[in-house]
Structures are given as C-alpha cells and as structure tokens.
Amino acid sequence: MTSSRDLKKELRRQALARRDALDVAWRAQVAFSLVDWASRLDLPPDAVVAGFWPMRSEMDVRPLMEALAERGARLCLPAILDKTTIVFRAFMRDAQLVDMGFGTQGPGSAAAVLEPDLMLVPLAAFDGRGHRIGYGAGYYDRAIARLAERGRKPRLIGIAFDCQEVERVPDEDHDVAIAEILTESGLRRLASAL
C-alpha cells in the first residue's frame, strides 16, 4: 500500500513535470494576464499582500504584486529563518534581496516583519477541494497555523497553472485547504474549502 507521503511525492513530481513542460514565453504572457485581477480581488488599499519570488517554472506573480502595490497594497515576501520557519518581510521595489535557498529570494533581516491580509500561495499541485501539495517542507502550513494562533486569518489564494490540478490530494490533519486558486483560467472559489 502506498503511503500518503509517497503518493504526494509522486503527484508533486508529475505536476511539476507538466508545469516544467509549459512554453516559457506562454508562461510570461500568463504572468502579465494576472495583472487584471489586481482590481478584482476586492482588497482595502492598505492591505498587506504576501507574494513570492518565483523559482524554477512557477507562475510569476511579480506583475500582479506590482499592480496590487499601485493600488496601495503593502507587499511582503517569505523569508526562510530556519528549516521549519518562514516569516513575511516587507518588500520594497528597490530593496536588495538575498538568497533564501531553494532558488528563491527574499528581503534581508533589516526588513520589517508583516502579517499578511492576503497570501498568494505557491504550490506544486492542487485538487478541486482546495487541498494543495507544496514542495514538501511544510513552511506555508506552519506559517498559516502560527498566524491563526494569533487570531489572524489571511485570505489564501493558491497560484498555479491549470496543468497542476490533480484528481485528489491526500490530505492530513495539519494540511490547510485553500479556498481560492488563481490560474490562467481565472480565479476559482472552492466552496468545499470556504
């Protein structure tokens, strides 16, 4: 019998292979098409938005982040503190970013730590119930749990390409379902995760 962990690993591998196979120029076009969502996400002008610096073939949310900033949002990026913890540090347009490992970058330790109102969540795979497979380290699940312990419940929007959808993600007690997924097809609200 295949374990939940092994099944997630295989689903992750397959979804990332599909994502990696997408045309690079097409992925760039899709990234810029997400800008249209900046005005449709219904955020207060001073909302704190956690984005992410794309790695490998991830959806590039930088154009969307820039459009949200133009509408008054304050931006932050995840910063890896250790093998289990990320925080979200303020991101300024001209700020120097540092290597965070895993092929991504984030603000250095001098940047203020912010608590996001909206989190754009990277993922490797997702299902129609809002369950996601990350990259296996659990950073986002733990960060969301820490925010919840402090009474904070940010809006979570998973960011992916349609090809990353799988039939069913095996879910565990610690997994956090995501109520919304933004892909090249648009924003999907997943009632089961609301």
Automatic annotation (TrEMBL):
Enzyme class: ligase
Signal sequence annotation: none
BP term (GO), one: tetrahydrofolate interconversion
Keyword ATP-binding included in the entry's annotation: yes
One Pfam family recorded for the sequence: 5-FTHF_cyc-lig
Catalytic reaction(s) noted: (6S)-5-formyl-5,6,7,8-tetrahydrofolate + ATP = (6R)-5,10-methenyltetrahydrofolate + ADP + phosphate
Transmembrane segments: none
EC id: 6.3.3.2
Sequence positions that bind ATP: K8, K9, E10, L11, R12, R132, I133, G134, Y135, G136, A137, G138, Y139, Y140
Keywords assigned by UniProt, alphabetized: ATP-binding, Ligase, Magnesium, Metal-binding, Nucleotide-binding
GO molecular function list: 5-formyltetrahydrofolate cyclo-ligase activity; ATP binding; metal ion binding
Residues bound to substrate: E58
The protein's name: 5-formyltetrahydrofolate cyclo-ligase
